[in-house]
Amino acid sequence: MGGRTTVAREGAVVAELLAPEEARRLQDAAREVCQGFMDPRQRAAFEEFLARQKH
Fold this sequence. Notes:
The chain contains two helices and two strands, in the order ββαα.
């Protein structure tokens, strides 16, 4: 299954279902943007934190 499914009520989007691959890609892109605002030391600590969360 792929693509997006959007649910709207009264003209407003209330939910959007994504394929797992797209959700992961968007999550990774958002993380890169957030890290772009961090200084190098803070970014390294955040990456270490994320690495521990995946296990």
